[in-house]
Amino acid sequence: MRSSTLLLKLIGEAGEEGATLEALDQAIDGLSRKAIVMATGVLAQRGLLERRAPGHYRLTAAGRLALEAGIAIKPGPRGTHATAIQARSLRAKLWRAMRALNKFGIDDLLLRGANGDEADARNNAGKYVNVLERAGYLIRLKHRLPGDAPTSPGFVRWLLVHNTGPKAPIWQAGKRQLHDPNTGKTFALDANAGTDAQPQPTLEAAHG
What we know:
By secondary structure, this protein is α+β, with helices and mostly antiparallel strands. The chain has eight helices and nine strands. The strands form three sheets. Strands 1-3-2 form a three-stranded antiparallel beta sheet. Residues 193-208 have low confidence and may be disordered. Residues 183-208 are annotated as: Disordered.
């Protein structure tokens, strides 16, 4: 694993509070303190992390997207890396699939948006759909698709009701909020958003 990718992972695991240079130095074997400082500098220049204070780092929204998508940080031109990561992330692909399909289930999104290399793509997609539903971008359709087994309750489908533009809304887990880069609006969600909690009730007016 590249040093920048490893640092992204460790800082992301530290959560909203971020990680200090001292903690990173202790956590990584075979990488000098100077190399860690240089790598964090590269990540900051690419918009993937921010410095809370000297020697104290946390991920930006683009950094969290890169971590969730499992994208390796490779050498390349500065200045466009954060935008490129957001465009390539699984959730960006899922959002494009939602806009194209309008009505969909999780399998529909994965068929269009996942390539098989992502870590736990189904769980990631389910959490993202949950967040978008709670924020009012999606409504759950009343009628489900038949399941594979006789006892199956069927497959849930959703309708995209707020197609705000090409950029995927970003779930900011640390702040418990959803930011829409298309409109500039940010929505504060409850503590269960983005988890496996039960989503909002079905809207009776929606039909599959």
